[in-house]
Amino acid sequence: MLRGESESLGEIMEAELFVHHWHAESFDEAIKIGCPLCLRLWATMGRPSTLCATTFHKPSRVNDSLSDLFEMSFHQIPEQSPDTLELMSIPGPIRMHLFPSNTNVSHSIKSELSSNTGSESALTFLEGKLAECQASHTQCCTGAAGKTYLPTRVIDVGERGHELIHLRNSSDIAGDSKYAALSHCWGGQQIITLNALSEASLRGGFTIQALPQTFQDAVVVCRRNNVRYLWIDSLCIFQDSEEDWSRESNCMQDVYSRGSFTIAATAAHDGREGLFFDRLNPRMGPVQIEITWRADEYPARLDTESKFLPEAGSYFFGDPTGFIQDIDQAPLNNRAWVVQERYLSPRIMHFSREVLYWECAECIANELYPNRFPDFMMGYESKNLVGLKNFSLLSKGSRPHEPQAALPGVVAHDPLSYIYTRWLRFRRLYTACKRTRDQDLLVALMGIASNVHDLFLEHGLGQTNDDDDHTLSASFIAGMWKHYLLIELCWSIVSIAEQLPDRPADWRAPTWSWASSNNVVQGSIYQEISGVIYDPEAFNFINDTEFDLRPGDMKIQLTAEILDTQVVNTLSGEVTSGHLRLKCSPFLVTVHLSTDGRFGAFESTGFRHGDVEGTFSRVGKIVFDCVLHQEKVSALSIVLVDTVVRNEESHLVEGILVKLSDQKDGAYERIGHFSGGEQDEYTPAHWILEQHKAAEVQEITII
């Protein structure tokens, strides 16, 4: 059975369910006759050969600024035999957006796509967006992309009809020449590379057919857009020279930020797949429909003032999962290096499997929405990346339609907190990405870190300490910002990396840095909560919820002091050694571990808070950096942050657990993060603070 519900995204009400298809056979028949809604559902479900019963599902609360937007959610329910109680796996909901036909979004809609993403019409779409951007996008043209630059080496692709292409040194090319960069997955395939043996043949000229398919297609794209030169990492960096790789990897910020555009092989797992794909079932654009229901048909379930159902009239419905499937979940975009490439690139042509996308600082569009892709259909990962990227440009006042004065009040009041919040959310997504080399974790981040560092300086970070060194190497210490370093130490693991040990096989960073972990990490609990306040999208969201904290409600008290940090980096940003000295009040604790060895709690007795007495055998929440196969462990606990909420109304205490190091006498290593909130009976902050205040102040070294 296929049931459904529809509701305004600005209202939260009981679900209104209705039947769309009672049987899978009915759904199948609708697909055969070409019902636009059912075809879209079928495609989103992965085009299964057999169909199960389905139901609509209640959508979650979102930003109420989209009150003219409606959502229909479908949920596939596997059919069950009446004589069995077996639990069935239920796939996630499939959501469709419904928006008025008189919006700017709907006027730009294209209804049909060609059968292949490399067709004339598909490539013409990208060529048109590039020409439009170069001609009219002030923000895109005044950035780094508008300045003359060539990488050390590039591939000369020649012109249409040329049989040979060549490796060239930029010193032999006219200074005003343009180039494009390729962002791609290497995969497991052995591809042609630049090395000491192949250099002569690459410079002498080679046929396009000698290249893997992705490279061949990239040459086609360059030639169609009259761009003579192409930068490809495997062909423009010596793959058998660590010295050249280190030097060139340090130039990635320039390579991707100064190119005319970046060609993203978004859907290809390796070089064999190419940029262009057959669209076996071409995706349709939003379909215009007429709604004919009347509100008075549902008097028992409706609050007439809330307008739970959209008014009768002309609407478009579209699939909001397309961007997530095409871009966020694509093979290319789960790679660490690619995150930086996408962030730095001023213009990107995304070659996804189903639809081509254009992305620049002023416009994100695709073949179905050629003028502009709706913001509300973008995925969470892209919103975080694009949000940080666009704030960089917005803060510099280079965006004509969004001057700095247009910043939301909470952000304009404290832009540094907003930048740091955006950074932490980006970092969480970044740590979930895959890496070819363990040592690339920080190296692949340096271009973005440099950009964020400039943002911090532009908004006044460090201006009161003129004697300090504000260079990137002095400010970005083992992947952590010096200005926030004590809070930065309170990172914790939120998700375990698949098929990877908790730490890399070879040393990558000191244990106090998140870069020492292979897992997905978040910022301090304090920062995660305060981040909701300083994110303008979240700030609009929380106005309608029980989360009523506002700027100024949370006061942070630092309970330790960093005396010194010593970190040694290579030119590319790789960390080779590091330690910090901390003045703190460590106290010895016994920790009870969970059965999986990843979580724990303090053992405590004699807990007292005011007139309330009690004994707590388990106190605090502890997340270990590495799995420990023990029932109990003894460690030193160091309180770093005490967050006071609304003038002592409640506390949130955070810190780290350390143990003596086996690598260096007298030094300690971090083994986990702990937190405790006063209002939670299982994590009383007062007990932790009492131990902290009773402890002796010491100076310790953590490596």
Topology summary:
Elements lengths: L1 E7 L8 E5 L2 H9 L3 H9 L8 E4 L13 E8 L16 E7 L3 H4 L12 H17 L1 H4 L11 E4 L7 E6 L9 E5 L15 H6 L1 E2 L5 H12 L4 E3 L1 H4 L5 H8 L2 H6 L3 E4 L22 E5 L21 E6 L3 H7 L7 H9 L2 E5 L4 E5 L3 E3 L13 H16 L13 H5 L1 H16 L9 H4 L2 H13 L13 H4 E2 L2 E2 L3 H4 L3 E4 L24 E3 L2 H10 L1 H7 L11 E5 L2 E9 L5 E10 L2 E7 L5 E4 L4 E3 L2 E3 L4 E6 L7 E14 L4 E11 L7 E10 L7 H10 L3 E5 L1
Parallel strand pairs: 1-3, 8-10, 8-11, 11-14
Antiparallel strand pairs: 1-2, 1-4, 3-4, 4-5, 5-13, 6-7, 6-10, 7-9, 12-13, 14-15, 15-16, 17-18, 19-20, 21-29, 22-23, 23-32, 24-25, 24-29, 25-28, 26-27, 28-31, 29-30, 30-31
Helix pairs in contact: 13-15, 15-20
InterPro entries: HET
Protein name: Heterokaryon incompatibility domain-containing protein
Organism: Curvularia kusanoi (Cochliobolus kusanoi)
Describe the structure.
By secondary structure, the chain is of the alpha+beta class. It has 22 helices and 32 strands. The N terminus is likely disordered.
Short summary:
The protein is α+β, with helices and mostly antiparallel strands and 703 residues long.
Q: Main traits of this protein?
A:
single chain; 703 residues; alpha+beta; 3 domains; nine-stranded mixed sheet; seven-stranded mixed sheet; 22 helices; globular; disordered N terminus
Poorly predicted ranges: 1-16, 53-69, 75-91, 298-307, 397-410, 538-547
Enumerate how many helices there are, as a single number.
22
Shape: globular
Biggest pleated-sheet summary: 9 strands, mixed
Distance between the termini: 60 Å
How many beta strands in the DSSP annotation?
32
* Gyration radius, rounded: 28 Å
Structural class: alpha+beta
Overall pLDDT level: 79
The proportion of residues forming helix, as a percent range, comes to: 25-40%
Strand order, biggest sheet?
9-7-6-10-8-11-14-15-16
Total individual domains: 3
Q: Beta-strand percentage? A: 25-35%
